[in-house]
Amino acid sequence: MSVPELVVAAPRPGLRLDPFTRVWRLFCSVKFALAQILVLVLLTFVGTAISQVPPPMRSDPQLVERWVAAMHSRYGVFTDALYRAGVFDMFGSAPFRFVLGSLTVSVLVCTLNRAPAVWRATNTIPFQRRTSYYEKAEDHAFSGGVAATPAEAVARIAEAWRALGYRVVPDPTSSGAHVYADRYRLARLATFVSHLGLILMLGGGATTMLFGERNDGFVIPVGSTRALGLGTPYTVHLDAFTDEYYLQGGAKDYRSEVVVSEGDREIERATIRVNEPLVVGPVKIHQAYFGQAVVVEVKKNGQTIYQDSVPLAYQAMQYGFRPVGFFRLPTEGLNVDLVAAEDAADPAVRAGQVAIFGYTPGDDSNPVFGGVLTQRQPAHWKDLEFTFVRETQFSGFQAVRDPGAPIFFIAAGLILVGVLGVFYFPHRRLWALAQPSVEGGSDVWLAGVCPRNANFPAEFRAAVDAAAKALEV
Amino acid sequence: MGQLSNYLVVSALITLVGAFLFYVAFTITKRKDVGQYASLAGYLGYAFLTATVITRWIADGHAPYSNQYEFAVAFSWGIMTAFIYVERQFRSRALGAFVVPVPVGLLLYARSLPDQVQPLIPALQNNLLLTVHVAMAVIAYGSFAVACGGAVMYLIQRDDKVRWLPFRQDIDLLCYRAVILGFPCMFLVLVLGAAWGNIAWGRYWGFDPKETAALTTWLIYAGYLHAHSLKSWRGTRSSVLLLVGFGATLFTYYGNLFLGGLHAYSGL
Ligand code: HEM
């Protein structure tokens, strides 16, 4: 008696896949990509429609809390729930980053998955030898009884198409009775270019976040010098600042004349305008804002211990909306705030005056002294003498070191090239087949394929006309 | 010159209303001569719009994009440009009945806005970059409006039974065509905006509400392109995406009326 053999069915593809393959397939799926893109759309829409915590506040939990409290008037009872869900900082929130990350993985997986097949498609020559292919092709043409042998007919068509700029590959295996011609075959790779560009763009963004540095409050009073910072050895001196206005009142131009030095060596003199930043080594300096500054002098026992312009470029809670500036006197263990009038009607400080407050470092709430300085009238505290010498202006810059920006723009170029390649230079393919005709001569079939391209029918007609002319039919 | 530009915009408005009526009449009657009148009126309206933009440009001394009035006119011009391009490629006049009302509405809206010529503040003085940035926006928004008109046609024609409309396969191709014109332009809007931000503030992307709205719009059309490559999504669902996309386009365009942010100062 024979023992029946155990038959083990081979697993059908697509059924019992191991988890890795399943996840791989999921990430390859265009449907899944579409779903992720639509979720991203939803999140960015929410991020636009709902107020976001202003960027300068984000790093300070107290400011964020105050901002959220103010939002109660707009979002009412939902405010706290929205805040906890991260909606007020949508683009830094976990869901947003998660979708962005998962899309990145999708693009990578999808690219890796498709690359071999697409590469093969750009390099294989798909000869078509069956007349049925030609009859079914979306764009096709036929001419019976052409006065030439199949080999001749095909050779002439090949010549004509070559003259039109196609790459023409005669069929070496069948004595010249088939031809394949194409154009822009590398455009098949364009989808990769655009999608890899996308990843590179996110890479540029990540580079900016991780390695970029900026100082949005780089402020220099006219006539003063400040260290540029951001890892550079440079100092910047502001020679002059000019603001111009139209007769109707709108702002026309802001510009700062600066001198950049390294130690005692002058490196560059330049004018910085709103749309004309100055590039110093790896750092760009952008014109951002301007305002009032005061020149102060501090003397101790008749000897000057401090003299500089103090930009009133800030605001502080305890002074309301008044412009505030500060300087330190480390040898005296003193931080000094200078506060200007909010407007001409300010009852506390009048035009031509600044209020002055001294604090011990580490205690910002209890001034050790306070008063009002009038121009050129020295005031005294202990053995110190403070003088408000004169008013001047300061210019505010944004100093930025951003190694991610070039990556971002290169990526943008790649995406554009990829997208234009796919849309406007899709792979166009032509075929010709010539067979001996029953009446003598040849029967000639032509076909062309270029999906979704509205211009292709016209191009195909041109190819047909060229072939007809070459065959004299 | 500014005054001339205002007369021209009224002429454009009147001609386009005429074109719209002819397009509707053509769609219903299918009479060839009516269709020709429709196209003729459309071209004439387009010529008036072009002349409006040019005269305004001369009056301003820079490309006309410094306020909402000028942009509404430019947007109408963009829609007519994309429409005429697609109409000529597909010889599909029925589209006119669905697309031409959009520039008509925009021009009516423009007439309700203050139209003084204004000087540019310093941040807007980067002429070339901004001119191309806005020109690309105009063409992108215009193409998306055309695609939206096509999508409405598609949704009416869903089962190829409506005799007065083209076949749905042709409508689908027409929409796709409009999107592949607008999509790269929209991308350029984003990138040139980023380039400008990088020059003016050293920041190429800041999640400013207007730029984020533009990104949302672009992503919707990226979604459309993927949907269009899937058999199960091509057609009805991808057409719905085109309607959503145009909604997002309008939101981007009008966004700063209620969004604020850095773009607020230009009024665009
Ligand atoms: C935010 C993310 C994405 C964007 C902005 C995007 C953008 C685009 C664009 C512009 C196209 C049309 C032009 C071209 O082929 O280059 C396209 C096509 C395509 N994308 Fe994406 N893509 C994204 C994510 C993905 C993902 C995750 C996948 C993989 C699953 C994917 C797979 C494809 C495929 C297969 C095509 C070709 C479709 C066709 O045959 O027309 N994409 N994508």
The SSE string of chain B, one letter per element, is HHHHHHHHHH
Estimate the mean pLDDT confidence of chain B: 86
**Poorly predicted tracts of residues of chain B:** 259-268
Q: What characteristic shape of chain B results from the CA principal axes?
A: flat
Cα distance spanning the termini of chain B: 23 Å
Question: β content of chain B, as a range?
Answer: under 5%
Query: Hey, which two chains have the biggest interface?
Result: A-B, 49 and 50 residues
Bound molecules: protoporphyrin IX containing FE
Structural domains of chain B: how many: 1
Number of helices of chain B: 10
The arrangement of helices and strands of chain A along the chain is HHHHHHEHEEHEEEEEEEEEEEEEEHEEH
Secondary structure: number of strands of chain A:
19
How many whole angstroms does the radius of gyration of chain A measure?
37 Å
Reported for the largest beta sheet of chain B, the result is:
none
- Please outline the major beta sheet of chain A: 6 strands, antiparallel
The proportion of strand residues of chain A reads: 25-35%
What is the share of helical residues of chain B? over 70%
Query: How many strand segments of chain B?
Result: 0
User: Based on the structure, what is the oligomeric state of the protein chains?
Assistant: heterodimer
Helix content of chain A: 25-40%
- Spans of chain A with pLDDT under 50 lasting ≥5 residues? 1-11
